[in-house]
Amino acid sequence: MSPFPSLTSPTAGPISLRSQFCSNAPTTVAGTTFDRRTISPRILAPRALPDTLSPLYYPRASTATTYWCVSGTQTYLALRITATLFSPTVLPVLSDAYNSVYAHLLASGDGVLAGGSFEFSDNTVLLNVWNSNNHQITWGVLGSALWGLREFMQDKDTWGCATFQVWDGVNWVGTGTVGMASSGG
Asked: Is 75 strand, coil or helix?
């Protein structure tokens, strides 16, 4: 008999993985269908503005990963803002990229991205999304991801360069970046 207590249990079970929860709906597990009506009242509360609000005020970038779920889908983003930019720089690119994807869906329907990637730029900001993790991203999931990315930046009033993973349910299907376009000259 050992003088130390036993740490075994006769009913040992498997250790379950921790689920990620949506930042925009803290009770929703990322990758499950997100119903916009499940948003916590805390999320909808008005945010206090800094006392030093001026046209030059920009919030700092965050190193934390945010899990942002797209309403009505199983698509979510694991994203980080790496540098902040003025919103009129980023907003047109995200909006125009989404509109381009939506036009493709209307004209040709859903399917995998030809060549496994999507690029959109206005010569100032560059958006790139590509297949990841031995999966293929579809036009529909890409559209959901772009919608979610814009929604996140608009909701948080944090516009800028970003890196993100695109998840379709439990599958990591794409990786993307938003950054400054290089000035080719």
From this structure: strand
